[in-house]
Known about the structure:
By secondary structure, this protein is α/β, with parallel strands linked by helices.
Amino acid sequence: MxxxxxxxxxxxxxxxxxxxxxxxxxARRLDVLCLDTGAMYRALAYLALxxxxxxxxxxxxxxxxxxxDREIDEARLQxxxxxxxxxxxxxHPRVREMxxxxxxxxxxxxxxxxxxxxxxTVVLPDAPVKVFLTASVDARVERRREQLAHAGVDVAAHRLxxxxxxxxxxxxxxAVAPLVxxxxxxxxxxxxxxxxxxxxxxxxxxxxxxxxx
Length: 213
């Protein structure tokens, strides 16, 4: 499908809803770029911890964002310490403004599947395919446990549940770009679906969107 016109696919959803896995599989199926915007915020949170920068210091975080440009492995991005502050880091208006500018610059270069929490509402509001991927808390806890185990991190299920529920609260209540489905997003509950099932459903949406242009 790489010879088709450039297409932007926005995939939003709460923590551990499976959006990153689905975005990667979908991008591979469509043969386009995949951008996990959540990893961008996690990377900044990690840099804040590494440099002992306070998570509520917006100006210092912006300076880190301008200076930091290196790869950070998955285990560090998924660490408990990063999980504890990433919502605070991501809530700063100026941080989000700078991140959105970078994300839009990526999209301006061509087709992309972009996963995050405000892609359809803020980053790519004109994306022809918008998906809001959700799942039950139980399903999300199990998925996060598997993801962390793959990264070499072991966390108890009850602690993950607390972290996910708190992350949901913070993401939905923040003043800037709160976690909500775009009005024209297709809501998919993936609780009982495999990643491939979800990808197949989104591919059908992509096909319909292309047929409409």
